């Protein structure tokens, strides 16, 4: 049985002059049913009576709502306010549910597919994939996706950060995976690339990103704000990752996810027949004609500033690292390199400490030589078995309470 709303829609479409066949296609009902509704032969069934009981409070106002809808008013809150002025005793929900079947479908804006020449463009996007536990902490998980527009070759990498260092690092990994560099790279207006647009629309680029683009020889492009469809190829690529790679994934850490992602790229994503080109991305890729990679890799270190304490320690990513006493209580530059080294520089740009990046949380990497000249300096520590805290000179991982007792013994506060 048809509901009151379904019968109304059929009659309204007939009033607009549409044929029985057109109404049947639009509503999904059989043409015989449509004819009976138009002729008034189809009576309201049990389901319809139940629906009418559900909307009994709004029934006296149906004609008013139909009149307003005929005038193009479909805003439920506006209509609800008008009904309340007329004495309507029901709630907003009933108004929303009543109007839902009559709402005109939103027209999908027409677009022109823009195809590029081989090797011309790659599109880039970041996507959030929720959170994952990493070394005892909940961290945000991001996916970096780059798609070569002509061949549709895709690169995918998951990270725990979306800052400038990782943005450049993932670009470099993608170019190395593709074996070359496109002539231009299109992305949105994220701060890793675009610092701001002035009142005249001019882009002020992130200087580090421009240095990167200059070394690799590509032209950076940022689409207009609120126009994400401009980079639709990579947007669809992100959607493909969500539906093909991500569901049912089991992984121990980010390295495990990326190992599986690389396998998926090589065995699934870049080996399938692409729905738009009708060809396999791996087969089209040799014809991309990408620019050669530069002879020297770009320094994609993660850069940040940290202030060292009076105990000659600074905090980075939840762990503490020692620095020489002469730079205590100063703001220092910390560089995390791609090979997991932590380099610390003084305000004049001189390297003052090198540590191995610690895993875990609340750990300490201390180099005894950093405390040379302080009274009662610690004796040479015994060799450590953990590979994550070896540095040169030798590094010892200690409980912070041990070091606090040492300072108290030597009269430091």
Characterization of the model:
With 413 residues, this protein is α+β, with helices and mostly antiparallel strands. The protein has three domains: 4-102, no CATH class; 121-288, Ribonuclease H-like superfamily/Ribonuclease H (Nucleotidyltransferase, domain 5, 2-Layer Sandwich); 302-409, no CATH class. The chain contains 13 helices and 14 strands. The chain has helices at residues 4-15, 20-27, 31-39, 46-54, 62-70, 76-85, 92-99, 164-178, 207-216, 232-245, 254-269, 281-284, 400-409; strands spanning 121-134, 137-148, 154-159, 184-187, 194-197, 203-205, 219-222, 302-307, 313-316, 319-322, 331-336, 341-345, 351-356, 364-365. The strands form four sheets. Strands 3-2-1-4-7 form a five-stranded mixed β-sheet, sandwiched between helices. Helix 6 packs across helix 7 (92-99).
Examine the coordinates and then state which fold CATH places here, giving the name of the CATH topology of the largest domain. Nucleotidyltransferase, domain 5
CATH superfamily of the largest domain: Ribonuclease H-like superfamily/Ribonuclease H
Radius of gyration: 32 Å
CATH class type of the largest domain: Alpha Beta
Shape: elongated
Layout of SSEs?
Elements: H1 4-15, H2 20-27, H3 31-39, H4 46-54, H5 62-70, H6 76-85, H7 92-99, E1 121-134, E2 137-148, E3 154-159, H8 164-178, E4 184-187, E5 194-197, E6 203-205, H9 207-216, E7 219-222, H10 232-245, H11 254-269, H12 281-284, E8 302-307, E9 313-316, E10 319-322, E11 331-336, E12 341-345, E13 351-356, E14 364-365, H13 400-409
Parallel strand pairs: 1-4, 4-7, 10-14
Antiparallel strand pairs: 1-2, 2-3, 5-6, 8-11, 9-10, 11-12, 12-13
Helix pairs in contact: 6-7
